[in-house]
Amino acid sequence: MIQVKEFVDTDSRLAEKSANEFLATLDEQQVVEVCYGSMIKQNPNQLSSQRSSILVVYRTAKG
Fold it and tell me: What is the pLDDT of residue 41?
């Protein structure tokens, strides 16, 4: 079975660390794709914040 797991954080290093820890639990053959995205959002007070997202597409061991 194909599944996805998303790692989202305002600090890209934390999302990356969590994604790498999850990937370490998988066999290399289970990993289908890893996607990364980042955006900067500005609020009405002209303050900007960054949000990073990593999406891991993987096969479960049973599938």
Answer: 79
Query: For the stretch 1-21, what's the b/e string if a residue is b when 16 or more beta carbons lie within 10 angstroms of its beta carbon?
Result: eeeeeebebeebeebeeebee
The CA distances from residue 15 to 12, 23, 34, 46, in Å, are: 5, 12, 13, 25
**H-helix or E-strand spanning residue 13:** helix 12-23
Interatomic CA distance for residues 43 and 49, integer angstroms: 8
Q: What is the pTM of this model?
A: 0.80
3-class SS letters over 16-44: HHHHHHHHCCCCHHHEEEEEEEEEEEECC
In this structure, how many other beta carbons lie within 10 angstroms of the beta carbon of residue 26?
Answer: 15
